[in-house]
Each structure stands twice: as structure tokens, then as C-alpha cells.
Design goal:
Helix content is about 35%, strand content about 25%. The strands form 5 sheets. A 7-stranded antiparallel β-sheet has the order 17-16-13-14-15-12-18. A 5-stranded parallel β-sheet has the order 6-2-1-10-20, with helices on one face. Strands 3-5-4 form a 3-stranded antiparallel β-sheet. Strand 13 and strand 14 form a beta hairpin. The radius of gyration is 24 Å and the shape is elongated.
Length: about 400
């Protein structure tokens, strides 16, 4: 039995490995010249494979999609992913944040070992093959450097990714192909993205690229601890990514969104008031804030931005008001960074279109996995974990369909 896997990212390669282990003849097709382009990009700063937190907490990171992803992640949980990496000669370790990384800290050694194992298992690859749908006879149709090519397979696994970083291969073009078949696809939106902020010229020029460390960000009832980075056009970073769904939806609904930053979240309000009530002496107000409240220059800059927006002078604020502002600096965002620059994307094939084995109900024998599906998660290992897990689940589903 032959299976075509379309997409050579983590979900597609895991589906291919699962299928080959089950006895299927597998060919992986990809539009790019080589496998795992986005996977390699994800590992440039250290490949965060998964996370070590308890599985019950881990699953909550998938938000509304958790019930639909639960079985797949439980069948291939973080411990299984770590064991899989170990079997490829890439042992892992848990960082101080609980995130899990290969000891090599890179994606390339893991990908090379994986491709060698797939080759040994008989998995074939066809690169520079861009999937454009089906031909009149039901064959999978590809654009190739040598012209159109039709491929007949007993089953297919679609793992074409979302719509972020299109230059690496995941451009979301598949959504029109599946939409033409009557399959409901939720609109693709940026996820784990940055946001635009109308910084003053002085703040932007001085603090572009500066991190806000140990802060707490709040929008509505949700608060996230972590780090953010000031960019020339706005703000990004881990804590921002963790709130990106709420921020994005607020911007899309209202045009703008407000969130607040606690610069000293571990310092009680009364203690901050006491510190800010101390004599200033002859030192500048910025130096006073730096010493009395242990604020960084970029944190002080944020306070100055907030005071300027309200038309008030920061040194003129009473200590109690200044303390309150320090742990609730308002920031207004006016836009979402383009999806092409986002780490991942939200939206995709709606889960109602899939059966319990990740097969498209309207297209028997066609399965889907990874970021093509309608889910999102924060950075921290959750994105890759679900991609691997749904790839394995789709591979198992195809084996079941083929009675292998």
C-alpha cells in the first residue's frame, strides 16, 4: 500500500515514520528543495522540542482545541518525544524554565539523524513538488520543475503547515484547494506574533531592542510573567506571545487593545510607596527611580511614555500614584505584525471536518496534521509537540484506513 505524505516538516516526517513502521510504502513530497526548513529555523536560537510540566497543565496550553488534541498528545506525550530524540542520538535536558531542548541545542543534528532513519526505513522523498490539488482522475497533482505530475496513492497525509514564514514553505495556499472541496477552513491569523505600538520617537530611538525582564503583562483577567522586547514598531517576546491570542482578537474586534505591564510585580504596593517616598536629594529623577524602585532604564522610559500620553509630568506624580503606575503601565497596541513574520498561525482546517483518526470526512483516505489544523499554542515546546503528536496520529489513522 502506498501513502503520499505532503509536507516535510515535523508533522509530515512523523507521519511518514509512523506509516513506514506500519508497513506502508511512503513518499514525502515538499515544495522546498529540502526537508524541515521551518524546523531548522525554529532551532536557530535553541530547539525547544517540548515542555516538562505535568501533562494535565501541558494540555491546557491548547485552549479551545485541547479536547480535539488531547488523545493525540496523550498517545505521543512529551516523554515519548524525548525518548524518540534520545533514540536518534540526541539526548535532551530540561532548562530552568521547564522547557526541553536537545543537548546539542540545535535542530540540524536531530533532523539529519531523522532523515537517515527514514531513508533506512525506505521512505522516499520528492522535493520541489508543490501540491496543487487533484486531477480529474483523483490523483494528487503537483507542480514540479519538469512540469505537472500526477501521483496515485492509496492514502495521503496532508502536513503543509500554517501560513507563517511562507518563504520556508508554509504559505497556507492549501486552504483554497480544500475550500473548493467544501472543507471548512478557519481564516489564518498570526499567532505568537509581535504587535505595533506608537512609541514616541525618543523612546523608540533609545530603547529599540531593549528587553523588559521579570515583568508581568495583563489583559483582562489574564496575567503572564516573563520577558518582552521593545521593537522599533512595537513590542514582542515570550510574554507577548503568550497573550497574543487575546491581544490579536481585541485588535481585530476593536482596532486597538490595551494591556498593562507590572515592572516590579514581586514588590508590594505599600513597599513601593515607601521606597518612592524617600528623599530624592540632588539626583536626577531617573536615577532616583533606578535606585529606589530598582527600575531599568527601559522601564523608566515606559513610565515616562505613559505619563506623557496622559499629559502629566512623571516627577510630579504623588508616590502612591507613581507606585500604582509602576505596576500597571498602560500600553496601547494598534495592530498585529504580519502573519509572514509570526512564529506560528492560528486557524486552519476545522476539527469538525476530521474524524477521530484525523481523516477528512469529505475526502476518505486523506488525513491532515500539524499546523494545518485549527489550533494555536504559545511558544515553549507546545507547537512542536502537537505537530509531532498529530503527525503520529494521522499516520496511525492512515494505517488503520489501509488495514495495515
Amino acid at each position: 500500500m502506498s501513502v503520499a505524505v505532503i509536507g516535510a516538516g515535523p508533522a509530515g516526517l512523523m507521519a511518514a515514520e509512523t506509516l513506514a513502521a506500519g508497513g506502508a510504502h511512503v513518499t514525502v513530497y515538499d515544495a522546498m528543495p529540502s526537508a524541515g526548513r521551518k524546523f531548522l529555523m525554529a532551532g536557530r536560537g535553541g530547539l525547544n522540542l517540548t515542555h516538562s510540566e505535568p501533562l494535565a497543565d501541558f494540555l491546557k496550553r491548547y485552549r479551545e482545541a485541547m479536547p480535539r488534541l488531547k488523545a493525540a498528545v496523550e498517545a505521543f506525550p512529551p516523554d515519548s518525544l524525548r525518548a524518540w530524540s534520545e533514540a536518534l542520538g540526541q539526548p535532551t535536558f530540561v532548562g530552568t524554565s521547564g522547557r526541553v531542548f536537545p543537548k546539542a541545542f540545535k535542530a540540524s543534528p536531530l533532523l539529519r539523524a531523522w532523515l537517515r532513519r527514514l531513508d533506512a526505513a525506505g521512505v522516499a522523498f520528492a522535493f520541489r513538488h508543490r501540491w496543487i490539488g487533484w486531477d480529474a482522475h483523483g490523483g494528487l497533482l503537483f507542480e514540479t520543475p519538469d512540469g505537472p505530475r500526477a501521483v496515485n496513492a492509496d492514502a495521503a497525509v496532508l502536513a503543509l503547515g500554517g501560513a507563517s514564514w511562507p518563504r520556508l514553505g508554509s504559505d497556507g495556499a492549501w486552504s483554497e484547494i480544500l475550500g473548493a472541496k467544501g472543507i471548512a477552513v478557519a481564516p489564518m491569523k498570526p499567532a505568537n506574533s509581535g504587535f505595533t505600538v506608537a512609541w514616541s520617537n525618543m523612546f523608540r530611538d533609545r530603547f529599540e531592542g531593549q528587553p523588559l525582564k521579570g515583568v508581568a503583562l495583563t489583559i483582562g483577567p489574564r496575567t503572564v510573567r516573563g520577558e518582552a522586547i521593545v521593537t522599533r514598531t512595537g513590542i514582542e517576546g515570550g510574554a507577548i506571545y503568550a497573550l497574543s491570542a487575546e491581544l490579536r482578537e481585541a485588535v481585530l474586534a476593536k482596532g486597538t487593545a490595551m494591556f498593562s505591564v507590572a515592572l516590579r510585580p514581586d514588590t508590594a504596593h505599600d513597599e513601593l510607596i515607601a521606597r518612592l517616598s524617600a528623599p530624592k536629594g540632588k539626583q536626577s529623577f531617573s536615577n532616583f527611580l533606578r535606585k529606589a524602585a530598582q527600575l531599568s532604564p527601559v522601564g523608566i522610559g515606559l513610565l515616562q511614555e505613559a505619563a506623557a500620553v496622559s499629559g502629566r509630568s512623571l516627577p510630579a506624580l504623588p508616590p502612591a500614584e507613581l507606585a500604582g503606575l509602576t505596576n500597571a503601565v498602560p500600553i496601547e497596541i494598534s495592530g498585529v505584525a504580519p502573519i509572514a513574520r509570526a512564529i506560528s498561525s492560528a486557524g486552519g482546517i476545522r476539527f469538525d471536518e476530521l474524524d477521530a483518526h484525523f481523516m477528512l470526512r469529505r475526502l476518505p483516505g486523506v488525513f491532515a496534521a500539524g499546523e494545518m489544523l485549527d489550533w494555536e499554542a504559545p511558544t515553549g515546546g507546545y507547537l512542536l509537540q502537537a505537530s509531532f503528536a498529530t503527525g503520529a496520529a494521522a499516520g496511525k489513522g492512515a494505517l488503520r484506513w489501509l488495514n495495515l
